[in-house]
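Shall we go through a protein fold together, starting from nothing but its sequence? Label the sequence line and the structure token line clearly, so we can match residues to local backbone shapes. Would you write everything just below, so we can both look at the same thing?
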Amino acid sequence: MDFYVMTLFPEMIDSSISHSITGRAINKGLINVRAVDIREYTTEKHGKTDDYPYGGGAGMVMQVQPVYDCYKAVCSMIDEEREKRPRVLYMSPQGRRFDQAFARELAKEDELVFLCGHYEGIDERALELLNVEEVSLGDFILTGGELPAVTMIDCISRLIPGVLGSSDSAEIESFHDNLLEYPQYSRPEEYMGLKVPDILLSGHHANVDKWRREQSIIRTLDKRPDLLEEAVLDKKEKKFLRKLLEERKDTTQDTNE
């Protein structure tokens, strides 16, 4: 999969994705990440890419010309003769919330283009010309779009076959079936009086799988109960969840009394 990041600070992208899993995936040729410097496409002197907003107001706005010309250059890097325009994601707090389901959707693309804004944003005409999809990591403001872009690239890359060591790795992490991941343990078996659950030492794989699944349900109920509405559970797991809810309801009533 090919990722193109339109940015004023390409070094932020290059330094962030060259390590760990994404770095290994790049070395293996499983993904390609190219940071494209918007500043190289400006026609203004001294590499200027921003100007004061029409109508007044604080801050500066990134200009339409360098952004659009940078986009045209990216399109030519992909395939200037292709009919389908690349999918352009604009990092914006006003956009669709990025989550694991969205990541799975994006992982099906052959390439993705990320547009990173700065200052007070980007001239609206550039967003219209590029037909961007606005994407948000959450209800907070960052200095620029580079960190969200890197975060999304990391998340999406993990879903590409071969990037993770095990083919099952991406399927058993948090948010699989809309559940949080179960607790993990490694050696030693005991540390400062804290022991690994006996079930994990039993060697009984079916029981281990059942315990892990139940722990995922418990964790989701404790930490993110909103996810349970769309969780994928079988009949036994639904029964287990109902039992948990009843027990907690009884405990709450006893406390109130």
